[in-house]
Amino acid sequence: MSTVSKAKRETAEALRRAIQGIEEGGSPGRPRLPLGVPEIDRVLPGGGLRAGCIHEVTGDEAATGFCAALLARAGNGGDGRGGR
User: Which of 4, 17, 32, 80 is such that its CA lies 20 to 30 A from the CA of 39?
Assistant: First the structure.
């Protein structure tokens, strides 16, 4: 393996770690709130929205309903069953 190839691989790995750090919000280990929709949870880093962070939701009425559903899940311990 050439020195150039090794340097490129190391640079790519450093970039991956930097991006992961940005996605983690500088606080790895914080719990995630899964949305309860496997198709969405699968594409979110860590399988849900990170607790203790700000998330922007847009879309007028749809956003209001989405936020209400998230609050209900969060208030129920994230299980969506309506109680703790």
Answer: 17
- Do 62 and 84 reside in the same domain of the chain? yes
pTM for the complete prediction?
0.52
Answer for the pair 33, 73: CB distance below 8 angstroms, yes or no. Answer: yes
How many other CB atoms sit within 10 Å of the CB of residue 68?
Answer: 10
SS (H, E, C) the chain: CCHHHHHHHHHHHHHHHHHHHHHCCCCCCCCEECCCCHHHHCCCHHHCEECCCCCCCCCCHHHHHHHHHHHHHHHCCCCCCCCC
Structural domain span for residue 19: 1-29
- Summarised one tens digit per residue, pLDDT across range 41-59 is 999 878 888 888 888 888 8
- Residues 77, 40, single domain; the answer is yes
